[in-house]
Design the sequence.
């Protein structure tokens, strides 16, 4: 049995509000997503991404929290948000950044199919730009939680308020243990 | 077909100025690089040096132009910080021979990992997401790095080199390819 398995891969052929994987099998131990994203709203270097999980459909209830450690300048900052309707605070690259540049993120959802525990998410994210100015780039790590014991079979990714642009990609992997 | 495949591993049997992976196929979706490395620079008090990364496309040499940028946040000793720069990508720092000659120094190789998502997509610049640790005797640190190559060509060559000096014998670099189907 292979350890890493491709569950799905999406590359947008045009702008779209979100990328969503549904009917995810519960037969793996962990999920891993690799996302290369850019949004389309003018006048912004970055915009928070939103991650929602669900069982049957993406949960839009106030069941998410996120803790952050991020640098957008020479001074890293920590952050915390609770009672949210999504996990956010991880930036996606936007139109004011260098053309053709996309943010990169790796997201782990360990033990996603268990029905006893709330679901934890670990995100590593970079929003690159050819700039040395503060708040025009981001590197950060983000810990999220979905306060639900339901197995995850839906994962939805979208920008805070705008569209993902063409060529944005997300690959979803299922990881097996022994 | 395995999802993760090792494209190449380079283990240095002797000191070397750089390591290059060439003819990287465009058939994967993502690349991942893992390394342990140490530098030869014996300059007094030069405890560490940056690990530079350059990309190439189209079968040619790596791009040595000013087409790169980098950012990172780090914890160095007890101090946290962030940094932005242009013209280079740094995958972090590696310990140097200049850090000392005692047994507490010479065995310390830095470790790191870097992901290069969608590296063959001709519609995207190349972005690097990396993590690096250097458990040095002097000034240990952990860095979370990002890098950007302002070029949309499919990456088929990667060059790694210390900012000063060379890699020492025993440094090792492995490049993996991740499939998406």
Sequence:
């Amino acid at each position: 049995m292979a350890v890493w398995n491709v569950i799905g891969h999406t590359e947008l052929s045009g702008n779209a509000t979100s990328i969503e994987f549904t009917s995810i099998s519960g037969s793996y131990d962990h999920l891993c997503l690799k996302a290369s994203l850019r949004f389309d709203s003018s006048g912004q270097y970055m915009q928070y991404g939103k991650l929602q999980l669900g069982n049957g459909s993406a949960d839009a209830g106030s069941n998410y929290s996120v803790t952050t450690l991020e640098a957008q300048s020479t001074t890293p900052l920590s952050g915390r948000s609770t009672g949210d309707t999504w996990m956010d605070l991880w930036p996606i690259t936007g139109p004011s950044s260098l053309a053709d540049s996309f943010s990169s993120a790796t997201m782990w959802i360990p033990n996603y199919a268990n029905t006893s525990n709330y679901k934890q998410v670990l995100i590593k994210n970079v929003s690159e730009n050819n700039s040395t100015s503060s708040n025009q780039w981001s590197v950060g790590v983000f810990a999220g939680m979905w306060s639900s014991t339901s197995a995850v079979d839906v994962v939805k990714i979208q920008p805070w308020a705008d569209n993902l642009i063409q060529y944005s990609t997300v690959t979803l992997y299922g990881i097996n243990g022994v | 077909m395995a999802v993760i495949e090792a494209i190449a591993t380079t283990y240095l049997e002797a000191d070397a100025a750089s390591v290059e992976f060439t003819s990287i196929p465009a058939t994967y979706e993502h690349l991942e690089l893992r390394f342990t490395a140490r530098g030869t620079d014996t300059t007094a008090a030069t405890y560490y040096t940056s690990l530079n990364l350059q990309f190439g496309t189209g079968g040619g040499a790596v791009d040595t132009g000013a087409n790169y940028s980098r950012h990172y946040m780090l914890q160095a000793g007890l101090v946290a910080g962030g940094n932005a720069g242009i013209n280079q990508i740094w995958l972090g720092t590696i310990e140097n021979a200049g850090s000392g000659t005692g047994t507490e120094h010479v065995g310390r190789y830095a470790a790191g990992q870097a992901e290069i998502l969608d590296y063959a997509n001709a519609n995207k610049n190349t972005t690097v997401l990396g993590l690096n640790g250097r458990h040095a005797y002097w000034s240990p640190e952990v860095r979370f790095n990002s890098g950007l190559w302002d070029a949309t060509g499919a990456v088929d060559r990667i060059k790694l080199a210390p900012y000063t000096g060379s890699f020492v014998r025993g440094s090792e670099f492995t490049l993996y390819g991740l499939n998406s189907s």
